[in-house]
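Build the 3D complex.
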Amino acid sequence: MDFSALQALAASNDWMAIFPEVLLGCLALALLVLEIVLPKSLHSSLPGVALFGVLAILPSQLLSFSVGFIEGDSFNGLLHHSYEGQVMRVFFLLAAVLTCLLGTVSLPRQRVPRTEFYHIVLVVTAAMMLLAQSNHFVMLFVALETVTIGFYILVSYFRGSPASLEAGLKYLVMGALSSAVLLFGIVLLYGVSGNPMLAEHTATGMNFDSLSGFLAAHPHDFLASVGIVLVLSGVAFKIGAFPFQIWVPDVYQGAPTPVTAFLAVGSKAAGFIVLLVLARTFSAYAWLTVPVLTLMAGATLLFGNLAALTQHNVKRLIGLSGVSHAGFLLLGVVAAATVPLGYGAVYFYLFAYLLASYAVFGVMAHVAGPDDADQELAHYAGLYKERPFLALVLAIGLGSLAGIPPLAGFMGKLFIFIATFRAGHYGLLGIAVVSVVISIYYYFSWIRAAFFESWTPPADEASARPAPTPVGLTAGVILGVLAACTVILGCYQGPLGMWLSGR
Amino acid sequence: MITATLNEYLILSGVLFALGFLGVLLRRNTLVIFMSLELMLVASALALVAFSRYNHTLDGNVFVFFILTVAAAEVAVGLAIIVALFRQRRTIQVNELDSLKN
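Done.
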């Protein structure tokens, strides 16, 4: 037999190009091995191994900016390594560090196995990093499913709590439904682009470059349009955009707090990277994608903010406010179709959102009690008097989410608005400004509870406030850094801002 | 021997997909919903194989392996969640799973 073809294929696999993902996978496996090998007394150090292991992988990821894989393909076109992809790798690694940190705060309150949580978080992170660089539908689907199936387990991780399991089941049904819709869209696109009767048909219709070439040659094909709408709907489920946002409040409330944070930031960012790449691939069908995404963005903004107004449970509130943030990001995606600044605006917004969200979730993890789904606005009354540090971090995080200057969230929204303005979507811009005003109302009712209300113990024992968790050293330092970065990134964008706005 | 055309395969696959989709939306039993989800994945796999056969490209056939693997993983995790939920709540009817409310 002749193996030269296989050898040539194997030589095109640049394993060095994905070494951060490989390291993450090894670290995840090492955690499981360490749990078996180490004596029980040392098990409490395993979360630290995960946290500092990912922190150690971060600088090696920064190295990959300088090596020669940038703007090239690897694995025979499955992956494409762009600068954006590298930036998002850093993003997902940061999200993994912060999720592990929240895990060390929230998990000890429950009777659940610990190590597997960090294992799954690391595997999901590696899949997200691959997702951000995928250039082929098979890669995209497998990476996306690894993320989604990992999240099924994470959402239902507190298996003694009916709320967590119910959230897990709802996420499972919705996630599997969206995957099936996405898959059917992929199949249609593959089928149409490979049709031998059509000019410029391609044998590799799942590769984004070949597909985009085919679509440019047939800009009004009916089956391809159906496929594109199905693919976009599948991704819209993942980011929780209207009308596919119905799962968001229930799942966010029931999931453990670290998982809610990871879902809100990591999963949403992964969805938006996919959406940006796909929008670029489908650029020949802008007549279809831009109106669909525009409608989706407007409806998502309005729905997210109006629904968040009536919430008393902070996890549901942050979930629905996350829906409205998805709307702002969609605005950037719509603008990116015509204005290059749109791309930079989306990336900057994601980083600002990461910092502010994890600051808020960090405070939530410390205020929550043993019942993780029961986190009411009323529990925050008097937080400033009792725990001023947490209240301050909360105020900075919420202020940034609301878009108050001079915090990072304000600059994120500003970039998005400038890109939208330049792209000429004035109606959408109006809706966005109105929804910022609405969002300030519910963010400030939370801040008001923490600063200006005082806690009066209710007469019945049932609605007592949960016992607070003390702030550990690592958690305190990281929360402080998050808040400080939110302030600094708002006043001074530095090279990051230059790079993003220069695109 | 009668051979089916590509369109017949696609119509069958579209019908299976629609049946699965309606099943997820309308049925109340979690296990039936789960079967409907699998039906949707299988419908996509059928369309992939048909496209692969009639377009004379191999990518589709290979993708089916990945889809089957993913579906197996999904079932493994999903059934585990359903069993754990049944132990807690003694029901898997979706209309009775409403403890998450504002």
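Chain A touches chain B through 51 residues (CB under 8 Å).
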